[in-house]
Amino acid sequence: MNVKPIGLGTLCALSVSAAAFGQDPAIPEAPAPLPMAAAPAPAELGYAPSLAWRVEQRFRLWDSVKTNPADADAAERLYTVLAETNDADVFHDDVVGFLKGRPNLHRKAHWDVQARRYDLSYIYPTTYTIRIGMKDPAPLAGRTCQWTTTVGVLDRAQAGCEFSVLLTLPARAGLAGSPPATVTAIVTVAGGEPGQLTTSDTVEVRDQLIVSLGDSFASGEGNPDVPTNLAALSAGPGAEWNADWKQRWMGRAALNGIRNPSWFDPACHRSFYNQHLVAALKFAVARPHEAVTFLSYACSGAAVFNGLLTSQPQPPGYRDDPGMAPLQDAQVERLVADLCPPDAGGASTAAPAAARTYQKPLVKDWAPWSAASEKVEANAFRCAGPPGRRIDAVLMSVGGNDVGFAPVIQGALLPRKAADPFGTAILTLVRAATVSPREANARIEETLPRSLAALAARMRQVSGRAPILQASYPSPVRGSDGRFCGPLDENLPGARSHPSARRLVAPSGIWPDQDVPPEARWGMSIDQREGALTEPVVVTSLNNSIELFALENGWVFVEDFAPGMRTRGWCAGDSRAENSDLPDWSAKDRQWVTWNPATWDPYARRQRYFRTPNDAALTQAQELARPIPAVSQVLTQRQLALMNALSGAFHPTFQAHVTMGLSLANRLNSELPPAR
What we know:
Elements: E1 51-55, H1 69-83, H2 88-100, E2 111-112, E3 117-118, H3 120-123, E4 127-134, E5 144-149, E6 153-154, E7 158-160, E8 165-170, E9 181-188, E10 194-203, E11 206-214, H4 216-219, H5 275-285, E12 290-296, H6 331-339, E13 350-361, E14 373-383, E15 393-397, H7 400-403, H8 405-413, H9 421-431, H10 437-446, H11 448-463, E16 468-471, H12 528-553, E17 556-558, H13 562-565, H14 576-580, E18 584-586, E19 591-593, H15 613-620, H16 637-645, H17 654-671
Parallel strand pairs: 11-12, 11-15, 15-16, 16-17
Antiparallel strand pairs: 1-4, 2-3, 4-8, 5-7, 5-9, 6-8, 9-10, 13-14, 18-19
Helix pairs in contact: 1-2, 1-5, 2-17, 5-17, 8-12, 10-12, 11-12
Keywords: Signal
Protein name: SGNH hydrolase-type esterase domain-containing protein
GO molecular function: hydrolase activity, acting on ester bonds
């Protein structure tokens, strides 16, 4: 059977929707045959039947939905919609709606949070399920089809021709995908006897392994699978508001039923809401004859020599859980271990190998004793048995933390001075972790190329000739008019009476309470001068450096989405107050001023594509289980919780991740041609 190649966003002529299978996702028992007069004989119509088929739950990371028929049906409907659209808003809304309706899906997605590895049964499946039926079943309504297959097991040998059947195919031993099977359907004629109307097709599954490595722009920082639940605050923060600062509405996560955010991987703040998952999902839904195994190891805060090639002991989520052990394995080495095939008993064949040694490059002017590099080591693994599963593509996001992208933004956010000794002490502590644009630029020129070269060399050993795709880092500092974001009170009419007006959260006076005088509050923002310095010196230079490296080393640099994000920075929006106002409780009037925090939805579509500090505080604040070095002794518990949440500030929203992910998917589709 000839098959038209599948283009991304367009299902081929053989793509299978629920309609093509008579709306039969659960495959009910075949109904009693209709009288033969109910439909003309196929021969009288000049009808030549043909088959259509698809891999069930082909985005395998979410295949736990198959245990619930309603969820499985919803997933297949979602895949059909996503396959047929390249509209970012449609893609965003449908994925958000699907995930919100299944708030525990991220807990059942083959990732062992404690062991920090993927299930071997996920990486090495033993079977694939195929749904196959008549491409155009209407002319055959009322007739019976007899089904046979040369490989695998059919769930039934006979069914009404308007219904589909399920075929379970074995996986090829040690390889991804299934062996080919010839599936045949014979249509009955008058009297119920098999006739000469026969059609067949060859069914073979190709299982594509797509890997995600990198930093917070790949993990989904700022976008937890389940955000902080503020519903309990609808009627106010409670009587404790005026009694004890620790009991104010963001002071303790357990107060009034406020629930902490939840992540696919809590340590790394990794969620389903990220560009790499979008790319893999879009790729999967557009390939009905293929399965996609998606492995993400991305971790917020990761850099080449702090997470990818060497360990990242304490990523942002480390402070959220008192029982969490420091992370021991680098992302690349964990990937190597996970890909080792299981032995006869189903256990991993991964074994420790000699530690890998690297020379971490240093910026001369900032390095101790002006050293050019320092020796670092990483735990390593090897496969004790056969080699590990082959990687088909790698999605990468690296470079930002290597040059200090986030610390530069943080430095620009902080006020130049504090109004009191307490604020000055906090400011000094926080500024110690920032990076100046000049140092960031030096890292871009001196150390980033050498760090990326070390990563590329190791990736050639691990992923072979698999394409490596890296998206550019978008700039967060321009508003709706394309100009750099200015003062927060720009275009706001007059002063507000409530204390949170035009204020973004900050470590000193994070929430505007009566015990924090206005002059001691910090307004966190990036003004036009800072934006004009940060964008060309850091963002543009960083992307230029990565693009040049990609060109010279065979990586694929994706940036065609960037122009559309140029007017979607953190200050973009119809109302500047929307970006800067905090919900404020009036004890006198017993009501929320400005807006009710219980109505906050971090996944509603907005003009801005980046989280403001307020967004981050409302979306992922939770009580710390471990102290933050240096500042825990001087900040209140409430301030610490919100300071920790600021790791999500100035990161892309899921809208931005969809825009970036769809561009990656388009290029991924070009790099990995369809099976047939």
